[in-house]
Write a structure and sequence with these properties.
163 residues; 2 domains; mainly alpha
């Protein structure tokens, strides 16, 4: 996890070069000289009496609120591109992973359905086989049965069996 923070930091730090440092120093000198000129102008206005002092005080209230456009370096450009590309890349990766998960779940559901179908078929075949065995033992076949007739005479007892 710490590498996820270190690598981008190093990459952004590596975007700075000597040209950027010189450009930044020049920018800072320009801002300082502009601020010195502004203060000199306020000092001259303040020397003009009570109205000048009021005007100078009004001008001092805006101190520090001046906006100077900072120079843009190669690192700033790289950062701007990173702000555009990183979210799009992360979203694309998320969409791809979601697609893989959905495909895997679908394949798993298909496999479960096939196994259940095969199990149901096996149970039906076993049930039919079992019922056939039970029927073979339970059902009486007519050719196996013999009939016995007994006749009784009052005088003699004769028993005959016919086959």
């Amino acid at each position: 996890m710490k590498y996820l923070l270190l690598i981008p930091s190093l990459a952004l730090a590596a975007c700075s070069n000597e040209h950027d440092v010189a450009m930044n120093a020049s920018y800072q000198r320009s801002v300082a000289s502009a601020e010195m000129a502004r203060m000199d102008a306020i000092k001259e206005i303040a020397k003009q009496g009570p109205t000048g002092a009021v005007a100078a005080a009004m001008m001092m209230q805006n101190q520090g609120k001046t906006n100077h456009a900072a120079p843009r370096s190669g690192g700033d450009t790289a950062l701007a591109w990173a702000q555009v590309l990183v979210p799009a890349t992360v979203q694309s990766a998320g969409i791809a992973v979601d697609g893989l998960v959905a495909r895997t779940q679908s394949n798993n559901n298909k496999d479960v359905g096939i196994v259940n179908s095969n199990n149901n078929t096996a149970v039906a075949v076993d049930t039919n086989s079992t019922m056939e065995s039970i029927a073979g033992v339970t059902i009486v076949k007519p050719e196996v049965v013999t009939s016995t007739t007994t006749t009784t005479n009052t005088t003699t007892n004769n028993t005959t069996t016919e086959k």
